[in-house]
Amino acid sequence: MSIRIYDQWGNKVMRLFTMGPVEMFEEIKQFRADSSIPYFRTAEFSEIMLDTDKILKKLAGTKDSSQTIYLTASGTAAMEATVVNCFSSKDRLLIINGGTFGQRFVDICNRYNIPHDVLTLKFGEILTENQFSSYEGNKYEGLLINIHETSTGQLYNIKIVSDFCKRNHMYLVVDAIGSFLCDELHMDSSGIDAMICSSQKGFCVEPGMSIVLLSNRIHEERIIHNDINSLYFDFKIYIENLERGQTPFTPAVGICLELNKSLHYIDKLGIERHLKNISDVAQDFRKRMNLFPVSIPEYPLSNALTPLYFNEDIAYKIFEILKNKYNIMVNPTGGHLENRLLRVAHIGQITKEDNEMLCRYIELAIDVVREI
Ligand SMILES: *Cc1c(COP(=O)(O)O)cnc(C)c1O
């Protein structure tokens, strides 16, 4: 079976309404088409990396003195690397687990024998302040959370989490992969010590680079003293290299250039305007869904994604029909929600007209399923 991206006349036929990869901005696609990959141990490449870093910190709401790790790896590697660079088996962590990505933090801590407790949310359950009450009392060194649990679409309230961590003197580690550059998020004012991002999500470029931003506090108190049992994932050498705009190992050079373009694009537009565009497209899509046989969960949602809960077991079939018949990609959901939950992303080059088109095809797909 082949993946059809272009038709016989060279027109693009594949449309992505997925969380990552996403439908890239025209400017980025043009840039990719026009450029070859340069050699990177040069002053010119260093300058681009330092420029990227400056804009990134501005958009993330953190000081220039915070540290950044540019890791050539997928988001999970950055989650794992962050945990092992910041914590050890001498610590105790609290993990918020409301889906697949929360579970991933649990799996990482299990692998490294890092003691932890888990605040588990059932599907549909909202994270509230009350749920933290039994975890108070300075019992933990750190908290791990996926601020947008992308497997369900729930956007957690950062203020509740941040206040809890301040009260209990904990480091706050936020996997913001599904949320950064999609929802409002300010690293310093929310007291975030480590913020994890990935190229294929909010940045809307290719998969392959992940970025971890570190507060001064966690850098000075934890990172520089760690004795991590890994070379590739040792943050200390990334920090040392970035002082001159370099990474210790060959990065995904092309994606680094795309990241720079993407951040300039968003910064030029203005972050508020950029977030509002995503939110407008999301609101438009959610309104259209009123006419469909689906419900949208009641928990707070990220702008990035709308979860669609079907009242019959047809979600995975709809995904397949959209893909196989119409070349439209939405996110299916793994695990016990597979046949009930589809997830539609609103980031990248997506407009209200695209929503209209998608709705037409979802309607057709529902008709097809009912005929089978
Ligand atoms: C996409 C995503 C990841 C990263 O997954 P990878 O497949 O390893 O890139 C991690 N956390 C969240 C919340 C995500 O949305």
Question: Mind sketching the topology for me?
Answer:
Blueprint: E1 15-17, H1 26-34, H2 43-60, E2 67-72, H3 75-86, E3 93-97, H4 100-111, E4 116-120, E5 142-146, E6 148-149, E7 154-155, H5 158-167, E8 171-175, E9 194-198, E10 209-214, H6 216-221, H7 235-242, H8 253-269, H9 271-288, E11 294-295, E12 305-310, H10 315-326, E13 328-330, E14 341-345, H11 352-371
Helix pairs in contact: 1-8, 2-8, 3-4, 8-9, 9-11, 10-11
Bound molecules: pyridoxal-5'-phosphate.
Key traits:
three-stranded antiparallel sheet; 372 residues; globular; 16% strand; 11 helices
Notes on the structure:
38% of the residues lie in helices and 16% in strands. It has 372 residues and is α/β, with parallel strands linked by helices. The strands form four sheets. The protein has a seven-stranded mixed β-sheet with strand order 2-10-9-8-5-3-4, sandwiched between helices. A three-stranded antiparallel β-sheet has the order 11-12-14. Helix 8 crosses helix 9 (271-288). It is globular, with a radius of gyration of 21 Å. The structure holds pyridoxal-5'-phosphate. The site of pyridoxal-5'-phosphate has 12 residues, from helix 3.
